[in-house]
Design a protein that fits this description.
It is built from eleven helices and 19 strands. By secondary structure, it is an alpha/beta fold. The protein has two domains: 219 residues, TIM Barrel (Alpha-Beta Barrel); 109 residues, Beta Barrel (Lyase, Ornithine Decarboxylase, Chain A, domain 1), CATH 2.40.37.10. The strands form three sheets. The protein has a nine-stranded mixed beta sheet with strand order 11-14-17-16-15-18-10-1-19. An eight-stranded parallel beta sheet has the order 8-7-6-5-4-3-2-9. Helix 1 crosses helix 3 and helix 6 packs parallel to helix 7.
């Protein structure tokens, strides 16, 4: 159910998360990539949508795995009673891994030092489950190609000693071009061959996120990591819409008009008066700002849905509020304003706001702050 204010209308500000959309998106992508299995990535509080409810919806949609950035995020899922396989892959240099091992969290390994630290926290009879990551071209985390032979040799020795189980080998595509993706896949194949030669037989091999899973069938292997696709935001940045992929945006960010003011020609609005009225017009005040995650960079460029039409944001977006030009149309205090949601309904999308801020839809949904309550629809 969607929360309502004391007058029965939507709250002052809220992010409505449609868990049925999450389940639909995961189910759609799971069918697409079969027989590969799917991991729903719920890091960063499920890209701002809420990790625990989204994880449950994703599992209901057919995901078999969950992915997070760090162990703290993984333990939060365990504390919520979620017992599906969880992989955490980005670790503090001084991380202690004992809790993760005790709570059945799989650990990504990006260096020999990390592998040895994980093994030191394990014990015979309580092995650590690890996924060895090879850097195939992003130059981020992952074992450097020159150290891969030593890494798989060390992992095989620790596996024989009963301290680790190498459950996976993985990497990440840069999603730049067909040629570069092909080069990364070739590097991944070489890494897999070296792992096999060292005596490792991982259960899952994975390199594709949503973009690769959709456009590079050869990258699917045993498992694909569904990130932004779970949330119905396209991963490509090329004009592809959610509907083109059979997906539905899961988050709608909305609020209510807090004030309405008629202004004369030449009147300035918001800080610096970077916008002035070219003619008499009506301005509506929306009580959301960059403290809530609305990007200041979209000042004068973003649009909202208000009173049956898309309306331009004018003036600078402030910490708590921004202005919308509604011309001569009638708008009243309390009217609903939709910043982004499902463009199939006519409203702007997260990608539209990403374009307006010279960013991407990923950032728009992820940055919505804690002052904005999440209201959940659908799901269990």
């Amino acid at each position: 159910m969607t929360a309502a204010g004391p007058d029965g209308r939507p709250p002052f500000r809220e992010a409505v998360v449609d868990l049925d959309a999450v389940r639909h998106n995961v189910a759609t992508l799971t069918r697409l990539v079969a027989p590969a299995r799917t991991m729903a990535v719920v890091k960063a509080d499920a890209y701002g949508h809420g990790a625990v409810p989204v994880a449950r919806a994703a599992l209901a949609g057919g995901a078999e795995w969950l992915g997070v950035a760090d162990v703290v995020e993984a333990i939060a899922l365990r504390d919520a009673g979620i017992d599906a396989p969880v992989l955490a892959w980005l670790h503090d240099p001084g991380a202690g891994f004992g809790t993760a091992i005790a709570r059945d969290v799989d650990l990504g390994v990006s260096s020999i030092g990390q592998l040895e630290a994980i093994a030191a926290a394990a014990s015979v009879g309580r092995r650590a489950r690890v996924h060895l990551k090879i850097d195939t071209g992003l130059s981020r985390n992952g074992v450097a190609p020159g150290a891969w032979g030593e890494a798989v040799g060390t992992a095989a020795r620790l596996e024989r000693d009963g301290l680790v189980e190498v459950r996976g080998v993985f990497s990440h595509l840069a999603n730049t071009s067909a040629d570069e993706d092909a080069a990364q896949l070739a590097a991944f194949e070489a890494a897999l061959a070296a792992a096999s030669a060292a005596g490792l037989a991982p259960e899952v091999r994975h390199i594709a996120s949503t973009a690769g899973a959709v456009r590079r069938p050869e990258s699917r292997y045993d498992l694909v990591r569904l990130g932004i696709g779970c949330y119905g935001v396209p991963p490509f940045g090329d004009g592809t819409t959610a509907a083109d992929l059979g997906l539905r945006p899961a988050m709608t960010l909305r609020g209510r008009v807090a004030a309405v003011r008629r202004v004369d020609v030449g009147t300035g609005a918001s800080y610096g008066h970077v916008w002035r009225a070219e003619h008499a017009t009506t301005l509506a005040l929306v009580p959301l700002g960059y403290a809530d995650g609305v990007p200041r960079q979209a000042s004068g460029r973003g649009e909202v849905w208000l009173a049956g039409a898309r309306r331009p944001v004018v003036g600078r977006i402030a910490m708590d509020q921004f202005l919308v030009d509604v011309g001569d149309d009638e708008v009243t205090v309390g009217d609903e304003v939709v910043l982004f949601g499902d463009p199939a309904a006519g409203v702007p999308s997260a990608d539209d706001w990403g374009d307006a801020a010279d960013s991407i839809g990923y950032e728009i949904v992820t940055r919505i702050g804690p002052r904005v309550p999440r209201t959940y629809m659908g799901g269990e």
